[in-house]
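Forwarding the complex inputs:
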Amino acid sequence: MKSALAIFLCALALGAQAEPMFRGGAAHTGLYDAEGPREFHRVRWAFPTGNRVISSPVMQGGTLYFGSDDGYVYAVDAATGRQVWKRATHGPVPGTPAVADDTVYIGSYDGHFYALNARTGAMRWKFTTGGERHFEAKGLHGMSPMGQTFFDLYDIYLSSPVVAGDAVFFGSGDGHLYALDRSSGALRWKFATGDVVHASPAYADGVLYVGSWDSYFYAVDAKTGREKWRFHGGEDPLIHNQVGFQSSAAVVDGVVYVGCRDSNLYALDAATGKELWRVNNAGSWVITSPAVVDGRVIFATSDSALFHIVDARTGRQIAKQQGKAYMFGSPAVARGIAYQPVTNGMLEARDASTGELLWTYRTEASRENAGWALTADGRFNMPMLYPSNNGEASILAAGRQFSMGSMFSSPLVAGNTIYVGSTDGNLYAIE
Amino acid sequence: MRRAALVVLLSLSALAGAAPPEGRWTGQAQLPGRGLPLVVDLARDSSGAWSGSLTVPGLDIKGAGLAHIAVDGNEVAFDAGNAIGLASAGGATFKARIDGATMSGEMRQAGNAASFTLKRTGDAQVDAAARSTPVAASTQGRWVGQYEMAGYPRHVTIDIANDGAGMPKVDFVVVGKLTTKLPIDLVAEEEGILRIESHPYGITLEARVAKDRIEGTLEQGPVEVPILLRRQAEKTS
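Prediction (whole assembly, two chains):
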């Protein structure tokens, strides 16, 4: 009971402080102690990069840190939107950095994991993984020819690191979960899974929680790298569509909440891995990382475009709202409002108790709607996007979907401003 | 050279003499940021009824049948049926005015609207729609079997009966986790191959008919699996 209270207080503290790492802290609650905008006023600034911004920004000391698929890691002044520094890597940077003790930690598709000086961007060390790659499979998602191996265009993130104690932890496309010494970058241990790990590990009470594309979700001792338990999600040997943990878990009050491509949101006992409940979404992926606030779990789905609020203890539905397009980016909750990014180029503000839509911001690319990738009301216009299951057609279609200023980035709420990236290459400050 | 010029003049005069919308029309719809190539064929039969088809190279659409063709002087309107989205859910519609060899107007789809301009480029070449045909007498009856998809068996019962010269009456029931009676859009038997299509479910059965068995493949979306059906003897009471 005492430890439960301690976890609760710890979770509250994490939410209140919004540590500079993915989802506002090591437990990934998605809760921010800030007065976000209750209505849309304006875009205060837009910071352009050379390619899409899938990464989610984090903030320390008034500076925002994030990556871009142009290969750079950026530091930007949050007040003015002016660049403080940029640091090149040799591949896209679609993960979210963690910042601790004046060091920025982040991985790149170049297969390296970097520690950078937070003030200057100078490299402190870099670690070489077994190499990055996307999830891939034969006949993936029903693309034809079925005997062809396709890489997954929707495996769009890299694992965002989590910092705990004197170690930094992250997953890799080489199938491992890594633990590195924060100061030197030396390998402490690596834990092998059966496939790509692009979810971000959550950390609580000395345990890391992360899922892999091998269909398993793992609890791993942060000190030793030893497996404590594993949970088996769904499999899909035919078209590999309904398999894999892309969602990053949230851990609150001894419960792990995580979405899965098998279309379930799971609640697992953090100590044992026992399934407590699940919410099934009838074939629609749950890529978003759930936000956990005041006994409610908030998450959204991809194809079915549903925004869910469920009871954290039972999984019972509290509210369900129909959205317009896939939701991959995760909801950020601040003072009763959930800010939900959408792949149609919209950012939605919803009441965190009812899911009711409060306001929407739409990127210029989404409004322009090149080639009618969207219907007039903002849904994906499937007949104009996917003429066939042919692999090339599907790849082109995904590219056109992503050209709508899509928001895969998870918002950061700080002060009265939301910071969020877009595939149009901008990081936006919206107030 | 003189003969070539004469041929050109004759063909131009033939085009000029055609009823305003009749012919092949080629051009583009001006979608934002992208021109969408369109080829429209419109023809009128001896009874005066209009038929037409649409080809959209960028969307894998070749010769899709046009529906609701309306011609009023130089005004023409038609829709693309279910070719670019279901008609019931905002499929593509076209409304245009013809001025000489130019058809220009507005294309609407899924709530979006864009202008389009087409030029008459020749005679109409309307694609004939696939038509259902009666099946062989021996194909009629009840067939039962199963196929497996994603590790789960599906039991199938198909009742086939000719219905005059039109589409045979087919009851196609699939029992898996759910029991589904498929809506049937096309039934045809040619060269001993039976083809049954259910468009809303994306299912096509294509199988050779023998005396007591139908054996072939069932396609559902991108997945093709083998299927074997056996004739079920009629129950005697």
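The helical segments of chain A are 2-17, 364-368, 382-385, 391-402.
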